[in-house]
Amino acid sequence: MPVIAQHDEGDTTHQTTEQKGEEHGEKKEGFNAAKVIFGHVLNGHEFHFMDIGDKPVTIPLPIILYSPQKGFTSFMSSKFEHGHHDYQGYRMLNEHTMHEMKLDIKKFSEGDIVAVDANGNLDTSVKIYDISLTRNVVQMLLALIIFVWIMLRIAKRYKSGVGVTSAPKGSQSLLEPVIEFVRDEVAKPNLGHKYEKYLPYLLTLFFFILINNIFGLIPGSANVTGNIAFTVVLGLISFVVIMFSTNKHYWGHIFNPPGVPIGVKFILVPVEFLSVFIKPFALIIRLFANMVAGHIIIICLISLIFIFGQLSQYAGWGASPLAVGFTIFIYFIEVLVAFIQAFIFAMLTAVFIGQALEGDHADDVHVHDDAVVV
Q1: Of the chain's two ends, which shows fewer C-beta atoms within 10 Å, N or C?
Q2: Is 73 helix (H, G, I), strand (E, B) or coil?
Q3: Closest Cα to residue 118, out of 14, 8, 7, 9?
Q4: Largest Cα–Cα distance of the chain, in whole Å?
């Protein structure tokens, strides 16, 4: 990771942080575990894999900016040289430049792109709309492309008769049991006779979350499902689907619960109404919290090696086997969690949709029971 050195507030030259520290003879800071952790779980303009000495190994991503004053601008994030240089009147903020420019950390954060004047000062007259392809966006698009390609490939095989008149082959034999599991264990028990209507959505949710979860376990990749914006969008889509699935029975049980004393209804009705919004919120937080927690634990275990290494070289080497062992153990658990969280999100979505269909589902059960009696 980049090493940050101390600096004088009055120094406004555009030198690298390391160069300033060397000129002033200042001592470099040690390993910053918090910066490494947040650098991984948060979004960014590049894929960062490792550091070789002071040279970071990264894949830069496109920067796309629009300013009413300057128009559209597009270039690769490597032009900023990790925040050490300005480019075309723009600057990517890092810890050093934020302190140098005396920016409010409540309004700005590392990785933000701001406009600067010829003297390197913040130019507040230029408004910026950042529509760059960040690593979360790029990785999500890659996951979507792979997901669509796999499904279209399997569908093409089924149309040609493979898996219908003969045994499934290759990826068919791998995914067919998973699809049947979602259908038989998630959709049918919760949605009754209407499961076919919602099965495509539930399968899309399950596989899209699963693929992004697995991609997030690749070293140097982005933790897409650990991004609150990603889970919020999925939760809002599920909320819309749930609302469009409601009927008069559902709202009747919320605003006029049957068999409940009038005095209790004054307490129960607000709680039931709030539950309508709490359900998608639970979907959002559950996926976000579980995926972020797992990644933080893994990075914390690896960071122990460098933390002990700062105390003593022998302590660092001694902590390495223990840290690596626990990291491998947690990593395999995270692979399991990737499947579990995809399943739970799809399952809870099906449960909430089933509750919205409560009246229709109950009617279907009664009809089925009458047919059996006859």
Answers
A1: C
A2: strand
A3: 14
A4: 93
pTM greater than 0.85: no
pLDDT at 34: 67
Sign of the torsion formed by the C-alpha atoms of 211, 214, 220 and 225 = positive
**Separation between Cα atoms, residue 211 and residue 356, nearest integer Å:** 28
Domain coordinates in residue numbering, the chain? 17-130, 135-373
* 136 Cα distance to chain centroid: 7
Q: Which tokens in the block code for residue 368?
A: 């089925």
Residue bearing tokens 């991503």: 61
Q: What token pair was written down for 58?
A: 């990264």
Q: Which of 244, 263, 247, 266 is nearest to 255 (CA)?
A: 266
Query: What pLDDT is stored for residue 371 in this prediction?
Result: 37
Pairing, β 129-130 against β 62-67: antiparallel
Joined together, the tokens standing for residue 271 give 């709680």
pLDDT of residue 118: 82
Q: Nearest CA to 114 among 138, 98, 135, 133?
A: 98
Which spans in 25-119 are helix H? 33-41, 95-100
8 Å CB contact between 357 and 245: yes
Calpha distance 101→297 (Å, rounded): 34
Give the C-alpha separation, 266 to 257, whole Å. Answer: 10
Residue with tokens 């942080």, as numbered in its chain? 17
Q: Block means of pLDDT (10 residues each) for the chain, length 374 residues?
A: 41 44 49 68 80 78 89 88 83 81 76 84 86 89 91 86 78 86 92 90 94 88 88 94 89 84 86 90 91 86 83 83 88 91 94 82 43 34
Q: Is the Cβ–Cβ distance between 319 and 308 less than 8 Å?
A: yes
Q: Give the Cα separation of 143 and 211 in Å (integer).
A: 6
Nearest to 28 by CA among 3, 52, 54: 3
